[in-house]
Amino acid sequence: MQNNIRNTNLRFNLDKEQQRRAWEYLQTMDRQDFKSYSQVISLALVDYFDRYYRTQADPYLETREREELYIILLDRARLSQKNEGWSDTDGHVFIYFTIEALAEVLHKSQMTVKTALAVLEKQELIFRKRQGPGQPNRIYVKLPKETIHYTDRFLSLRQTENCPIDRQDSFPDTDRKLSGNKKEIKKNNLAIRGSKEPLSPYGKFQNVFLPEKELENIRQTIPDWKDYIERLSGYMASTGKQYQNHAATIISWARQDHPASRQRNYESEEYETL
Predict the structure, then answer these.
(1) Quick one: CA dihedral 182, 81, 165, 130, positive or negative?
(2) Which residue spans of the chain are classified as CATH 1.10.10.10?
(3) Reported pTM
(4) Which residues, at least 6 apart from 203, have a Cβ–Cβ distance to it below 8 Å?
(5) Which CATH architecture has domain 61-180?
(6) pLDDT (tens digit, 9 = 90+) per residue, 18-61?
């Protein structure tokens, strides 16, 4: 085992910005996520050189990755807007999408997703608002400057059907590829309807959102409620599918799995809270 271990020394010149930033990252990294210098340096090196060689073979790789990510975020935000999903006090629509879930959907590494998000934010195509500890960021998706004449480029619930955001010819071709199939979108209800109660994220991918009242109801009526939350979280992350009401979906799945106890344990109907 000892023969498989290799040692090397690293030196950082803090007068050089890139090396100084690398050193600062090492000093401030989360020890729960990264157990050692060796782990984080290995991850960074593998990701960097994998990307370097892929980019050499495909010069447009990074551009396509950013486009794919933006298309997914914009499509999700437009669906949320259409179904009156999450919005702030100014009426601006926002979505939740964790790094881990985006990596699953795009089949990319989390570092690739983080890099692409940072570039999109620098290009003012998205805006991320931090929430409390352990909470996913709110993501506001902005329209490209070239496609809209208004100063406010945020998607808003106040925008009407006559606004450019609802016209297919106002979006780049890359957006139309994902957003064009409106029948399929309507069929699958790929949006979470808004709720006046505060929603908290649950599950491995932090993509199952439940108000406290409905969570308490699930706890009281479903003995293995944690398993159902994880099952829903994993399913949505792996398929990209969304449900209008996560609590109703969990209750419905539990009723299907335990038909004999339906009447006694699961009093809520699947769509009664929609």
Answers:
(1) negative
(2) 61-180
(3) 0.48
(4) 229, 230, 232, 233, 234
(5) Orthogonal Bundle (1.10)
(6) 999 999 988 988 877 778 888 889 888 888 888 788 777 777 77
